[in-house]
Specification:
alpha/beta; binds FE3-S4 cluster; Aconitase, domain 3; four-stranded parallel sheet; globular; five-stranded parallel sheet
Length: 390
Amino acid sequence: MYLSRDEEAVLSGKHGESAQKAMELVVALGKIYNAENLVDITSAHISGASYKTIGDGGLKYLEDVSKDAKVKVTSTLNPLGMDRERWKEMRISPEFAKKQLRIIELYGKMGVRTSCTCTPYLGGNVPKFGEHAAWAESSALSFVNSYIGARTNREGGPGALAAAIIGKTANYGLHLEKNRAPAVIIDADIGNTLFDHSLLGQAVGKRIGSAIPYYRNIRPDIEAAKTMAAAMAAAGSVAMFHVEGVTPEHSRYDVSGLETIHIGKKELKDARESLNTADDIQLLAFGCPHLTVREITEMAAFLKDKKKRRNDVDIWFCTSSEVRSRCPDQVKILERFGPVLADTCMVVAPIESNYQRTGTNSAKAGNYLPTLCSQRVMCDDFAKLMELVI
Ligand code: F3S
């Protein structure tokens, strides 16, 4: 693999130990995937911010690397294990909270922005079309590859942090034009709701694994695209998709010889049934990926004149602190039903300490709640889930 003189200098330790280790990791990944060189990145998004997911080992790693490392590009963090102000409402232990706050502090020390969301592309960290990036968080990286046309592989947390520290990543996979071509056409025949798009992502992810799909007959907006991207990445490991007439690279490739898969109402029903394992709930959790202003506004409009009648069910709305601060009136309405939590989510928070049955309108959460949080799951449309408690 070719390295420039400057890159060799970093690798030899001339710019400090942490930069050297970061370069070693990026180069090792490049060698595994046969990269010919490194490319400059403009942005990084780092997962591994929740104490629940990284534990004491991850905290120790961050203590070490933050001694002399600074990120070189705009870098953001994935959600934390708690809302940093409202963790007591989430019934988080003081010990967990202390370690979680330390993790944020260490990332901050390295220059990482400590707004912690899986939708950084809604503001704050928005790579441009054609730019290279190093993003972890499967839903977000698929969104920026597909909907924005930036270029990132499916990074892990340490790989994204290493790339952020050296400002470069190895040039392989989705950084290369030839690897961004669609492999299969999805002829979608679905309804117009967000939940339909979530189930579509679920059905497609299960069916095609890691291939790049080319959708026909849908026109997803930002909200629909983010929920689809999340579901495809969780049910399979899809890191990029094209949508005819919508995504910026859809017309670059000849799709005439590709296999077509039809996904219609029956496939959506099967996808929904495969995610449902609970017949009652203790927690309703919305915002996977994090809610946008528009979603919060629509939820508030739906709930405006309603009352919560079941006190044995908690309700969480998860979003970023930035989005929460942009719609205070709508947030006030939602808060009559449950907290609007910032910078955390139902999957990376330790909900298993307090709940065993969770309802969600997100197929991604529907995949991860059983495996990462030991939950039985009810997965349905927002209105249908809310009707259980209002
Ligand atoms: Fe975001 Fe948590 Fe879902 S990180 S995509 S809300 S699992």
